[in-house]
Design goal:
Blueprint (H helix, E strand, L loop, with lengths): L4 E9 L2 E9 L2 E6 L13 E5 L2 E6 L1 H14 L1 H11 L5 H4 L1 H12 L2
Antiparallel strand pairs: 1-2, 1-4, 2-3, 4-5
Amino acid sequence: MCLGIPGEVIEFLPDQPDLARVDVSGVRRVINVGLLSDDMPKPGEWVLIHVGFALSKIDEQEAAAALQFLEGIGQAYEDEIAALQESMIDEAYSKPAASEAYSKSARQP
């Protein structure tokens, strides 16, 4: 089962305007908001997230209702939160050594 989960935009990464740090039930991760380029969210606004991409903006009431529903369905929600916690997109921006290693390997032929 695939779910879209609500997350609150905390901040944008200064060097990557399509990437934003969001809070999803206490888990902070970097996601791609590029699909919302026509109506970019602002810090404090909510987005619906699936596999690391913000699919749409939602209001706080929609976010609360979605979180309540997701918590009610149990295991699928827990699996989605676990997947978010393990997401790789944030690793490159939260660990300088990993980011440097990736940058170096990306430049090598």
